């Protein structure tokens, strides 16, 4: 089994688990008679683990786990993601359709580290797409060099440590500062997001190799520049080994009437919806739970969607009435 995987890059295990009950659950999650089915990545996280019993059991099946431990040569196995995809066999109506499984490599968006050597997935991809030289597009280990004419922003961190050590140090700092980290690509590009009261910061980060240093370019894309100044100062000081100089300032909230907030929840941008839900949660008025219920049912994928859900759950517990 191990030799076959190493040689070919794939492994087929027939009749490993029973799928009868899981198939029935999938039919409930994804009815056949819907007019416009969910087609995007992960089917909108509709049945993401944990979901329903049979699907859950496949994700933690003892035989599968035994094989995984054997192949990885470790007993320390961690489930980071398990989500079923629905295939409807209809013409695609959106560029994000998963009707045809697109060629892809999941290590770029499911882990912070990159393979130290060409992973066995390359072999699997080359077997499936014989016309495609996957190795040509693989990127390993070090960040890319600085692009020609690149202009570094004021918050640029530099270190002679290894790229992985620099990244680990920075991400620990960001965790302490309550900053969300999202992988954009395997070319050492990341997105940082943070909320401070009503303010939302959207930040872009690139890692580069320059001479004997690792350069980390961290740039504010949108958000309050004064809040960003406080956050950038804390990142810079902590990266140099110092202590944070206090929390970011929180600008004054804008007070709107409940009916205006519900309008924002319906028609505003994701951040507008976050602000509206937060304002409703912190207000002194009672909130009709029926108007909040849809936000407790919607799948949450992005950072802002999770923030909206967090405030909706707060309302359900503390502020709602029927």
Structure description:
There is one protein chain. Helix 1 crosses helix 6 and helix 2 crosses helix 3 (53-59). A 5-stranded antiparallel β-sheet has the order 1-5-4-3-2. A two-stranded parallel ribbon has the order 6-7. A hairpin with a 3-residue loop joins strand 2 and strand 3 (189-196). The N and C termini lie far apart (58 Å). With 322 residues, it is of the alpha+beta class. It folds into 3 domains: 2-102, no CATH class; 156-239, TATA-Binding Protein (2-Layer Sandwich), CATH 3.30.310; 258-321, no CATH class. It is built from 12 helices and 7 strands. The longest helix is centred in the last third of the chain and has 16 residues, at 303-318. Residues 125-140 have low confidence and may be disordered. The chain is 39% helix and 14% strand. It is globular.
Order of helices and strands: HHHHHHEHEEEEHHHEHHE
Q: Approximately how much helix is present in the residues?
A: 25-40%
What low-confidence regions span 5 or more consecutive residues with pLDDT below 50? Answer: 125-140
| Beta-strand percent range | 5-15%
Termini gap: 58 Å
